[in-house]
Specification:
By secondary structure, the chain is an alpha+beta fold. Helix content is 36%, strand content 22%. The protein has 30 helices and 38 strands. It has a nine-stranded mixed β-sheet with strand order 5-4-6-7-3-8-9-10-11. The protein starts with 5 loop residues before the first strand and ends with a strand.
Length: 859
């Protein structure tokens, strides 16, 4: 049928009143009951059946079906409880399969509001479905219950549809009041019309008496309407809170609705919420929400951990800073996509063909969009609350920080200096939100989701917006210290350490250096079973492997910055220096012997580590959280102290910690030295194992050192290509690399991403003192968290007694099959060697309980 061709509705009077319904029209009937809707659906069904045309009934409501299959009617079932994206895409797939010139009757749009709790998502569904139906030249009927939705939601539907018709009925009369009729006009079209049953016509109301009768009915039917200035979710929370305040009633059913809609979809997390949350805790979350939907995994984990500590460990809670976080609801993510008209690109990206290919285009769409005005006004109110204090915008997606899926470092966090005019601050905030949204399309996040079977599942991005904790020093702001903590430590450097006591990674300033492998910097590792014990005993060694730069909020550059330690120490009080700095006594002694007195300081948080109240608090806190979760956890925190030794910490994040599942003892054989590639103790992570190694990929440290600096990333790309080549095989690959893997600085190691090594079964970092490469046991960094989650074994070969044997030349004489795998890589054969160990019985043994690891050839 041609576009805009007239059809017969089964009601000739209606066709005359509207100058006919046309192909391409979406017709929304605003009614008081579904009986009113059926006044118009039944005639359409009869008319299409008479003409030999089919009608498709899209059934998704909880009530019995409005139509039964047969007589030209086909019925399709859909389930809104699957979530907005799954439901919308299922409906779209059916529409696509039916093709052009189809006729549809939909169940009530208001039932989507009931399933998804908010008017916003109901409106989003209509805004993406209606244009697609129009494009396919269909006719579709939709009912909408009057007075149940916000004015904004109804306005969005009216803006999108072709016809919006208000229907009013009583026992005697039926009226239609056209609110929108697109692309046609008559002098009487937009007057209220009364149905004349005797001849089937619709009579426009012109006389005063008839109009008075009509508005009497309108008033009667709208007096019971909800407050339509509010979204349906806002009304629900308001009514729930009022009932709780007046009558003390907060039923389990109500808590189910609120916790599922606003907090989490993880059943374990929901169970903990119901154990620890009070009604007022939910109301406070709602009070600080922008938009609607879920606050996401990171925000939920932070709030839950705070409540656990408050109830189960009041001694630790006494040291905790209050929080004043805000939450950008997950519904805003989809609203942003719909508002900026790239929903179709979004769903095409979620296909096998488009998953990686369309990601850059979708990323750019996220970065260039605008926000609805209602959301911008809420942004402004939040910024007015924070004043000109730095904030951080953090990802908090639905899948993030859940049991089994940490998403550590996969999505962006963006610091905002939050100074200047309101327009400048608003622009900075909006850019930060766009950046986090766009990070859902980065390669590491895509690969991570794909590996875990989450690539095509609903991944709405909510945001956690937090005030940056810390003190001001001249032109910058930072906390005294920050770090990450783990209730279980996979890093045991001697037998006296109890892994169940947990560990910390501490840094001075902002905690960004505690979670990333940064240039030349080393955080302070604290095993809480023996906090002051370290593998470094000499002051020169402590200095060499310490923190050299401090991350802070810089008011001069209006950004997150890194400053050399020496540029920060002049602003520090003496008590603060004692808290985080230590003297290099060896170097100071050398200068004194030369007749010079010089103070040489380095950052290693020594005073904090020696504070038994602090380390005891952290140990107790981590134990409390693990007990509540019945699972290891990791946390992020900041620390601020005083000259009297008091301290407060701000708990920023808590999530289940993946620690690997291979903990049983493995017997490590005693191989002859000439059959041993390496034998190490106390420098491995990833659980016990005994695995055959099929291929070894070896990056020669000296050849890599001599390779041009600007081309060193080429080696990372080659490793990624090898990783990709073996992705569908069942072969076990072991990778040897010099220095630190995953560093951002090619002079410290090979700058690969986790996505480039995710199919290796084991990674080995090698030290080489001649050219300056040094591994780093960065347990707790994002890279190491990825290795642990993927159960990829890690070991470090240091130039210390911990490395009993390392025969680094063992692979030199073996054939290099690099060019068989990657024919264009001949020039890299001296740097990257790929050895097939078929028939050589190369085997990796690790006993994590006794901290022993051996790689060797068995007879």
């Amino acid at each position: 049928m041609s576009t805009f061709e007239r059809i017969r509705s089964g009601l000739p009077g209606l066709d005359s009143m509207l100058d006919s319904i046309r192909m391409g029209d979406n017709v929304v009937w605003q009614v008081s009951s579904m009986d009113d809707y059926m006044h118009f659906v039944t005639p359409l069904c009869n008319q299409l059946h008479e003409e030999g045309k089919e009608l498709l009934y899209m059934h998704f409501s909880g009530h019995p079906a409005l139509l039964q299959a047969g007589n030209g009617i086909r019925v399709y079932e859909f389930d809104p409880s699957e979530g907005f994206e799954a439901f919308t895409m299922n409906v779209r797939r059916r529409i696509k399969a039916e093709g052009r010139d189809a006729f549809y009757v939909f169940d009530c749009l208001s039932d989507l509001q009931a399933a998804w709790a908010t008017d916003l998502m109901m409106g989003n569904f209509f805004k993406v479905t209606c244009p697609y139906l129009f494009e396919l030249n269909t006719v579709a009927y939709f009912p909408l219950l009057r007075g149940q939705h916000s004015f904004d939601a109804v306005a969005r539907i009216q803006e999108t549809t072709q016809l919006l018709l208000d229907v009013y009925t009583d026992s005697e009369s039926l009226y239609i009041n056209p609110l929108k009729v697109w692309n046609r006009y008559s002098p009487n079209m937009f007057l209220p019309h009364k149905y004349m049953e005797e001849n089937g016509s619709f009579l426009p109301l012109k006389g005063g008496y008839e109009i008075s009768r009509f508005y009497t009915l309108v008033d009667a039917l709208t007096n019971t309407s909800e407050n339509q200035n509010l979204d349906s979710w806002e009304r629900f929370i308001t009514d729930t809170r009022r009932t709780y305040r007046r009558e003390g009633i907060f039923t389990p059913a109500v808590e189910d609705i609120i916790s599922h809609t606003m907090m989490s979809n993880d059943e374990k997390i929901l169970s903990l919420l119901k154990t620890y949350f009070e009604p007022d805790d939910y109301f406070l979350v709602y009070k600080r929400m922008i938009g609607t939907g879920c606050i996401g995994g990171k925000a939920c984990g932070m709030l839950l951990a705070r409540k656990i500590i408050q109830k189960d460990n009041p001694e630790a809670f006494a040291h905790m800073e209050p929080h004043d976080s805000y939450y950008l609801g997950s519904d805003v993510f989809y609203t942003y996509i719909v508002h900026n008209k790239f929903w179709r690109l979004h769903i095409h990206q979620k296909t096998k063909q488009g998953y990686f290919k369309l990601a850059p285009q979708l990323e750019q769409a996220f970065l260039s969009g605008s926000f609805p005005e209602a959301i911008r006004l809420q942004f402004i109110r939040m910024l007015e609350y924070f004043g000109q204090r730095p904030i951080i915008v953090r990802s908090s997606s639905l899948q993030e920080d859940a049991f089994g899926n940490a998403f550590a470092g996969k999505y962006e966090s963006v610091f905002c200096i939050n100074t200047g005019t309101m327009d400048e601050r608003l622009t900075e905030l909006e850019n930060a939100v766009r950046t986090v949204y766009a990070s859902t399309m980065n390669t590491s996040a895509l690969e991570y989701r794909r590996q875990r079977g989450l690539g095509f599942k609903d991944e709405q991005m909510a945001l956690l917006i937090q005030r940056v904790s810390g003190s001001m020093y001249e032109d910058f702001l930072m906390p005294n210290a920050a770090g990450v903590g783990y209730s279980y430590s996979a890093y045991k450097w001697d037998d006296s350490i109890d892994a169940s006591d947990g560990m910390l990674r501490l840094v001075m300033g902002l905690g960004t250096r505690a979670v990333d492998r940064t240039e030349g910097d080393y955080p302070r590792i604290v095993n809480l079973s023996a906090p002051e014990r370290s593998t470094l005993t000499e002051s020169w060694a402590k200095h060499q492997y310490s923190q050299r730069y401090v991350d802070l909020m810089d008011y001069t550059t209006k950004s997150l910055s890194s400053r050399p330690l020496k540029d920060v120490t002049p602003y520090m009080d003496s008590w603060y220096k004692k808290l985080v700095l230590e003297h290099d006594s060896d170097a100071e002694r050398t200068f004194r012997e030369r007749g010079q007195r010089r103070e040489i300081l380095f950052a290693n948080c020594e005073g904090l580590v020696r504070n038994t109240e602090f380390t005891g608090c952290m140990k107790s806190l981590l134990h409390t959280l693990q007990q509540a979760y019945q699972y290891p956890v990791d946390i992020e925190f900041t620390i601020n102290g005083t000259d009297t030794g008091e301290f407060v910490f701000n708990l920023l994040q808590c999530r289940p910690l993946q620690v690997g599942t291979r903990r049983d003892a493995v017997t490590v054989p005693s191989l002859p030295e000439d059959k041993t590639v390496f034998s190490v103790t106390g420098s491995s992570m990833g659980g016990s194992r005994a695995e055959d190694i099929d291929y070894v990929v070896f990056v020669d440290s000296r050849a890599y050192y001599e390779f041009p600096y600007k081309r060193k990333p080429d080696i990372a790309h080659i490793i990624g290509d090898i990783n990709h080549h073996f992705r569908k095989s069942n072969q076990n690959l072991l990778l040897f690399v010099p220095g630190r893997i995953g560093t951002s600085s090619p002079e410290l190691g090979v700058p690969v991403s986790f996505a480039a090594i995710n199919h290796f079964c084991a990674i080995c970092e090698m030290s080489d003192s001649e050219v300056g490469y040094m591994p780093e046991l960065s347990y707790g960094s994002h890279m190491f968290q990825d290795l642990v989650e993927a159960e990829i074994f890690y070991t470090a070969l240091f130039d210390t007694p911990k490395t009993r044997i390392f025969n680094r030349t063992v692979f030199h004489d073996m054939p290099n099959i690099l060019t068989e795998i990657l024919p264009d890589c001949k020039e890299y054969e001296d740097i990257v060697k790929v050895c097939h160990t078929e028939g050589m019985h190369l085997k990796l043994y690790s006993d994590i309980q006794n901290s022993e690891t051996v790689l060797g050839f068995e007879s």
